Amino acid sequence: MDGVYFITLIGTLLVLVAAFSSLLSFRFGAPLLLLFLGIGLLAGEDGLGLTFSNSAAAYFIGSLALAVVLFDSGFGTSIATFRLAAAPAITLATAGVILTAAIFAIAAHFFLDLSTLQSLLLGSIVASTDAAAVFFLLRIGGINVRDRVRSALEVESGANDPMAIFLTISLVELITSGAGMEKIGLDLAVDFLLQMGVGVLAGLLGGILIVALINRLKLDRGLTPIFTIALSMLVFSVTGALGGSGFLAVYVAGLYAGNRSIRAHASIRRFNDGLTWLAQIIMFLVLGLLATPSQFPAILLPALGLALFLIFVARPLAVWICLLPFNFHRTETAFLSWVGLRGAVSILLAIVPVLGDVPNGQIFFNAAFIIVLVSLLVQGWTIGPVARRLGLIVPAHIGAVDKVELELPGTAHHELLVYRVVPSSPVAKGERVPRWARPSLVIRDGQSMRYQYAGRLRANDYVYLFTHHRYPRLLDRLFASPAVLDGDDAEFFGAFTIDAKRPAIELQAAYGPQLHPGEEDMTVAELMTARLGGRAEYADRVPMGPVDLIVRDIDDDGIIQTVGISLEPESRAPNIPAFFNLREIADKVRESWRNRKARTAPGPAEQPESSEPAP
């Protein structure tokens, strides 16, 4: 009995210390997941002396925790975000993982003297990015980049784990069965299609089941989030038992359920947030306890070399190849390649060779652990500075919104929102709240009053509104401080704005940049959209001679509304001599061909004299 208390005491203290370390992370910018992992190492065999060597238990705990993280990742990803970057993100999550593993395997073969299959196995273990690390840095870390880049990173990190898991398990089976490279072919491809196909189908069916049961069963609101996460684990386990990818299924189920009208959505989201934090803490602590740092020096130098090769060669090369068709700017591709953080998934997969009795299986675990540590140290600590150096940090669409969502019984399609009136927001300046928002109550200086008698809203008032669940985005603009052209925004968007519907020919008259043939009859919005490859996003830049045109505001249909003009060309993003996309490569080939023809064409002095007699 005393052992139960002792284990509970130690586990609780570790979780509390890990949770407390989040304060250090927010204050000093340290990668939070690195702190979780470090606490596990310090408490382990070579630290405080806690011995934990049960690899099977660690893999089981880690798998369940990863399933919780993936369900929450899908549940918190809007379908708009998914659609915005679905093609490049899915390409990175599938082909990108394979390319990364293959390129990395070349270095692993020489650094650690592994066989071809073993090199591919280590490459597969470290090929996927960590959803928890990427989501934390992008959603909580305050790094605000362009929507398409952010969406690509979030969807990729949530969707690439199933591919890495499939490759790792398949390669372990091939190695332990004594099969050679000839077995990597049709059989593996069929197995992959089966697992992914069953995973997607089971995830969709599971998402439909979750939404239907939650909306039909009148569960207590305290039980609803628990019932939801239990259903997600049911989807995960049943899919795995049927031969599909349970990790892909649970992500798809979360994506479907999170984007449907589901009862107690806000409660489920809050519960998932807390449970995901707990799952990450437990997963990193357990994996940290499982490691034995005293074994690291034996392979420290090769592992460091592999980590740097992964960061600076394998990941960038794989990302560049995958994104060639998608017209990402070179700075965006560089950032996508840098945000390839490795985390708990790689360490979790490194347990598989140990469980599968692969020869020298501990080498895979120790090497992966060192690679993850280096990735979190080098990449996790520098993502913000790299984004700023590449010119990818953009001002928020609107200022901060202090909003609380309250769900009431019987309001499946409506919700009660509580907004704090931000100083300088439109409502603070006198703009009225629309009637369809149904404002009902105002809290001012601790006193409540009906909205009709509150008069003009003041800064720091709290307003209660009962509205349809589709409209909060419209209300956010009213209650938030909009991005006005002063301070940091003026540095980004320029000194003033123009209406995007104005004729583009006016830019040529005012600033002198020459328009291309066919652009004279365009509006500014049409000109920018055309030069951006047919799609414009918030904060996109288009150089126009001595000025930069910046997309200042864009509607829900993707049409540019207002444009900022910057008179400081030096503010443009750095010119990176790499990561060219197909459109840029084609342009350079055409330009080189035209220059070559111009050099080989005979000049006026070289023209042959006419043989005809002069008249």
Uncertain stretches of 5 or more adjacent residues: none
Helix content: 55-70%
Count of domains: 3
The neighbouring-strand order within the major sheet is 1-2-5-3-4
- Alpha plus pi helix count: 23
What's the overall geometry? globular
The secondary structure category is alpha+beta
User: Please, what is the average pLDDT?
Assistant: 83
Strand proportion, as a percent range, falls in 5-15%
User: Can you tell me the CATH architecture of the largest domain?
Assistant: Up-down Bundle
Rg for CA atoms = 28 Å
Distance between the termini: 121 Å
What would the CATH topology of the largest domain be?
Na+/H+ antiporter like fold
Q: How is the biggest beta sheet arranged? A: 5 strands, antiparallel
The CATH C-level class name of the largest domain: Mainly Alpha
Number of strands: 9
Q: What's the structural blueprint in terms of helices and strands?
A:
Blueprint lengths: L1 H27 L3 H12 L11 H21 L3 H6 L1 H26 L4 H10 L5 H10 L6 H13 L1 H17 L8 H31 L7 H18 L4 H13 L6 H26 L9 H24 L6 H9 L5 H12 L5 H18 L4 H7 L13 E4 L7 E7 L18 E6 L2 E4 L11 E7 L3 H8 L8 H6 L2 E4 L5 H7 L12 H8 L9 E4 L2 E8 L5 E7 L15 H19 L15
Antiparallel strand pairs: 1-2, 2-5, 3-4, 3-5, 6-9, 7-8, 8-9
Task: Give structural notes.
The protein contains 23 helices and nine strands. The chain is of the alpha+beta class and 615 residues long. It has three domains: 2-287 and 298-389, Na+/H+ antiporter like fold (Up-down Bundle), CATH 1.20.1530.20; 403-479, 2-Layer Sandwich (Alpha-Beta Plaits); 488-571, 2-Layer Sandwich (Uridine Diphospho-n-acetylenolpyruvylglucosamine Reductase, domain 3), CATH 3.30.465. It has a five-stranded antiparallel sheet with strand order 1-2-5-3-4, with no helix packed on it. It has a four-stranded antiparallel sheet with strand order 6-9-8-7. The longest helix has 31 residues, at 186-216. The protein starts with a helix and ends in a 15-residue tail after the last helix. The model has no long low-confidence stretch (mean pLDDT 83).
